[in-house]
Structure formats: structure tokens, C-alpha cells
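sorry to bug you again but im stuck and you know this stuff better than me. theres a chain ive been looking at and ive put its sequence and its fold in C-alpha cell form underneath. id like you to explain what the C-alpha cell line says about the fold, in plain words if possible. anything you notice is useful, everything is just below.
___
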Amino acid sequence: MLHSLTVSNYILIGSLDISFPEGLVIISGETGAGKSILLGALSLVLGAKADAGMVGPHGENCVVEAEFGLDDEIRSLLEQADLPAEGDCLLLRRTVAKSGRSRSFANDEPVSVNVLQELATRLVDIHSQHQTLRLGDERFRREALDLWAGCIPLREECARAWAQLGESRRELSRLEERLTHAREEQEYNNARWERLNRARLVPGELEDLENEQKQLAHAEEIKELLYGAQAVLEELHLKDASKLLTKGSAFIPSLESLGARLESARLELEDIASEVESLNSRTEASPERLEAVEERLSLLYGLLQKHGVGSLEELMDERDRLESLVLDATTLVSEVEQARKTVRENNQLHESLCVKLHEAREKAAPGFAAAVQEQLRFLELDRAVFQIGLEPCAAGADGSDNVRFLFSAEGRTPSDVSKTASGGELSRIMLSLKAVMARFKRLPTLVFDEIDTGVSGSAADKMGSLVCTMGTQMQVFAITHLPQVAAKGNAHYLVSKEDGVTSVRSLDAEGRVQELARMLSGAIITPAAIANAQALLQS
């Protein structure tokens, strides 16, 4: 329930801090006093659109705070939004600057307007005199019937199935698009891949072939160089020099070490000469091998150029990429088939839930219509006929039914309520629907904003009784101009305007008598109006 409302610098409200009790709370006031402004302030803190025009003349911004009771459902929502959920109260606050920018808070933590609106749907249901237009809203009609039928969980399951079906359809479309593209490119990619695959690329091969090509192309020149080097090495006679130094060491001891060093050099040079000889023997001019190497190099160079890469490793990466594309087309065929199977399964699940929903609605519709019709006749529409019509529509998140409200005030064959009901009848139909829905919808606070428009006399008294009955089940606010309704409240607040400033005050017993008398007789309060007001309160 709404415990209190604090308003600062909101349009014509300078400052307001008011607490509310349980039960039926009446709000009245003369036309233009600002009842709609008060409701606007409450709507603002519940997430309504903010604009700079809401900021009054007494500051740079306006502030609206509302304190609500905190139950398990609201506490769960706060926890899901990672917001403080301790204690037994929820404090919502909204500020609006002159720039039009607004900020929202829940228990002093900043929140988005979306979070505020989500909380609001669990806290307050505001029904204005214009909300009778919702009778033409398909979603409202469906919600009303589903609450009575007890199939909200089934509808939520249907919505989840619809979402899954949509996701699987999008995935199938994505895969089919990939498959179409892959098939268009498959022949081209396959030809490129096969040519690379036939090339049997080997890491490091290009460098080896380039070296071999140089050797084969200059084989004769290489052999001449090796022969020359071999001849020079043979003419050094290092062995004889080593022997001479060894003999001389008998006379000069240092020659012994020189001889040893020369011997070591001789052995190293002999080893070099041996390798030169081996290389010389292996170096042969082979036009056939040279032709094969150059042909291989030409192939590799051509592939590098064709695929726009600079190394054999990059070429091998391109080969692997093309292979994956070729295989992808084959793999995608099975993936597409599996995706189609998933779509079929999800569609079957959704269709079965739509059927269950339709059966539940069809079964519940007569009882729901009878309950609403009973309320309408209580509200002195004695010959009223109210029926529920179900029409097939394109399947979606809410099933495959359009719900129609059919009405006749004169006991005739009913037709669409939005075309046959007058303003007063629409008000009574909406109140009847709210009264029936309130039995099933967990909603701590209901706000009726002049729902009694177009109704008077005993019918107004009956509307007051019905609203009063709802007030025994939950907190109900009734903004009204009818004394028959106002007299039934547990508490009564008067909205007034003086010097352009709107204020709200709680009425005591005498104040209620005076306000009811004003509502009965107008500006001039007569003794008869006073007596009538007292009688209304006593009854």
C-alpha cells in the first residue's frame, strides 16, 4: 500500500507531505483545484514521462517521493535489480530539473525509469476516467480473461515458447544465408583449394629450392672454384714445414710450440681440403634437375602471386582457409537440417500451448462474462448483457486468440462494447471488470480517477458500495465528484487551490460533512445539504 506522498515544487504544489491509511481513501475538490496535479505527481514517481513544465516556480527542480509497503514480490524485484531490500518499506523518489532531465531512485539508489516502471506495475494500478479506452485494447481484454481463467502462467510459458521459436527461426535464416553464400562460392573455392592441395606445399621448401636453383645454375663455375681452392691447399706443403720446425726446436725451444700450432693448422686445412673435394665431387651440372627445380619454383611463385601472399606459410594458411570453406558448405547442410528440425519442434510446442490457452479461455469465458454481468446489474444496468467472444488471430506470444468484449444495455444481442456503450456505461463496465480482476490480481493499491463520470443517483451509490467493498480487500483511492461515493470512504482528503497554489488536507468528521454538503449543493451549502451529508455518512 501507499504509506505517504511527499511533493516539492511540482507545478502548482509548493510543498506537500501527506500520509494515507488502509482501506478506501476518498479525494475530492472543486473543479480546477488540482486533483489531476496530485495524480500526476504520483504518476511521475511511478515512472511517467517527465518534462521541464513539471518544475514549479519555487526552485531549480521538483521532487516527488512515495513510500510503499514492501512485500516479498517487491523485495524479489529489488534483489533482481541489485537494489537494497531491507526493512518493510520501499521509498521511490523522482527529481526533475528545469532542463527536463529527470533522475530516479529506489531506496536512495539510482535506478533507470524502466526499473521504476517495473516496480510501479506491482505497486499501483491507476484507472483514470480516460482508461475506459482500454476496453478497446486487445491486451487489456486478454489480461482480464486470463486472470479469471488462471492461465497467466500458461500464457507466460507460451510467450517463452514464442521467443524460442523466434530465436530458432532467426538462427535458421542465418544458417540458410550462410549455406546459400557457401554454395555460390563452393565451386570457385574448391578449384582454388584443389590447386593448392595438389601443390603439396612443404614448410621451408621455397628457400631450399631457391638455394638449389642457384647451385645448379652455376654448377660449372662452382666446380672451377672448388678445383682452384683444392690445388692451392695441396701446394702449401705444411707437413714438411712442421718437420723442419720440430728439428729446429733442438736449438730454439720456442720453435716447438710453433711447430705444434702449425701441425694443428695443417690438420684443420687437410680437413677443409677433404670437404672441398667432397663438395667438388657432388657438384654436377644437371639440366634435368635444374629444369625440375625451376618448374617447381615457377609453380610456387605463381601461387604466391595468385593468392596475394608473400610467403609459403601464408599460402598454406590460405589453403587451410579454403579447405574450411569447402567443408563448411557440406557441414552447413546438416546444420541447416538440424535448425529446421528445431524450428519444427518449437513451432509444435508453441502451437500446443496456443491450443491449451484457447481451451482455458474458452472454458473460462462464460463464467467471467457472468461475473461481470452480475456486477453490471448491481450497478443498475438491469438488462445488461455482457459476453466474451474469442476470435482466431495470428499466433504470437499471447496465443492465437483475440478477446472481444460484447455488450448490450437493453438485453439485445450484444456487440463490440466500444461501439455500443455510453460514457456512463463504459465507466460501470470498467469498474465491474476491475472489481472482478481484483479478486485474482495481487495489486496492493488501486487508484480510481473519476471512474463515476456520467453516473448519478442510486447507480452512483451502488458504484460507491462496490468501490467500498474493494477497499476492504486492498487500499483503494477514489478521486470522485459524487457524494454517494465519497461518503463511503475510510478517510477523506480535500484538494484545494488558493492564490494559485494547490494543497491537500485530511478532513475530520465535521470537514467531511461540509465537503459532502458542498458536493451535494454546490457553492451555497444549505441546511438540507448538511442534513443529507450527515445521513450519507451515517448510512
The chain has 17 helices and 15 strands. Residues 517 and 530 are 5 Å apart (CA to CA). The radius of gyration is 47 Å.
